[in-house]
Design brief:
331 residues, mainly beta, five-stranded antiparallel beta sheet, 3 helices, 45% strand, globular, binds beta-D-mannopyranose
Length: 331
Amino acid sequence: MAKLLTPSFPTMPWQDKPEGYTKPVWRYSENPIIPRDAIPTSNSVFNSAVVPFKTEGTDYQYAGVFRCDDREVSMNIFAGFSVDGIHWDINHEPITFQGEDPEVTRLEYRYDPRVVWIEDRYYVSWCNGYHGPTIGLGYTFDFKTFYQLENAFLPYNRNGVLFPRKIGGNFAMLSRPSDTGHTPFGDMFYSESPDMTYWGKHRFVFGTAGGWQSTKIGPGPCPIETDEGWLLIYHGVLTSCNGYVYRFGVALLDKDQPWKVLKRSRFYIMGPEETYELTGDVPNVTFPCATLTDGDTGRIAIYYGCADTVTGLAFTTIDELMQHLDQYPMR
Ligand code: BMA
């Protein structure tokens, strides 16, 4: 049996798989966990990232970076805190980044954040407006002060997702080059950087395939380390007669050369089925941006955006995902 190489985390949010349920990922019974109006100015709160983080002097055990589109409807990211990983107190003011160059820190728009602990701090990546979408990077130690780094890439790019440790001595990131619009294409690439500023050694990881992942694909939450390789939950998009449909699947990438795909699922692991996923500002979207894991039990909690409106929580395990990869392999 494959094992998660992640810390023990027995208190993470969890519900057992419902009796008789046959699919690999199941929803939290009280979904959605974050409503669209979680803060006074928000139109929607979705595609957001959470990590375990204790705030001194409080009961908070988790922190996160949340995409809150306001009622203008403009996109920005906000820090938030939680005692249980389910109920969230999101700051009413967006994150402002410290940085040396105002050309880099100036705000056009920010959306779809990911957060990951690497070595000594939490790094945040997001889709950053700089003459079109590209990958913004920053870091924080305390979720109070945030520092912005150079944009990782030229426009246009989305879904910059960092690996939780260096690979071959370099920081490593997956991303999805795109266009400046709603992007009717998209394959996943891997890049490395010695310093979080200069990115290179670009490698193709994988592209579109049949059915649910036929229009574009892109990385979701930060890859999860296992003893068999990197477990990657990724999103895939189908263009239906009624527009885009966003589902998610799973792949296993080589431990030392993550651009080499060891396994990839032909069937999706989850897609829009519930009302709050099927209807909202953008119907038929389930978009995963973060996971919590317990290395002891192999449990995985997935935070995902629902219909670009609210935030949901779902559960799976490493065994479920590995079994899915073996049962429905890419043809
Ligand atoms: C993508 C991004 C995501 C969004 C998705 C579906 O291009 O904007 O944030 O969830 O479209 O609308």
